Amino acid sequence: MSLLKVFVYGTLKPGQCNYQRYCAGKVVAAQPATAFGRLFALPVGYPAMTAGGDPISGMLLSFSDPAVLHDLDRLEDYDPHRLPAHNEYNRCQIEVFDLSGQKLELAWVYLMTPEQVDRRGGVPVASGCWVAGEFPENKYEKTDF
Question: Which neighbouring-strand residues pair with 41?
């Protein structure tokens, strides 16, 4: 039996607000991992990841029950039958690496498009590691004239 693998970088990480409801008691393995993309903090209090080349810190969660994916899809407002622009996030598979840079395997991840991030006022997270409650006050530097 193969395990369902999901790379999480935000509220589904252990200790974050959605882990208990959607993952606790269902995860059979969890390990720190990295994937590549661009990470943004959204003013609504959760992050978004887009395709890109920056390292993103997260967790690779393994589930024995594939039905978990349907619950995660609902949380992330993803419906495979909708046009991608009508989903809040789109689910796709990406390569995931351990902390030493060794390729682990493909895992599901929820991504937004750059346009979706921009419409929601996303601010880049330069560290590649989202922390709940951290949101830069301003998207642009203030300049005194």
Answer: 47, 123
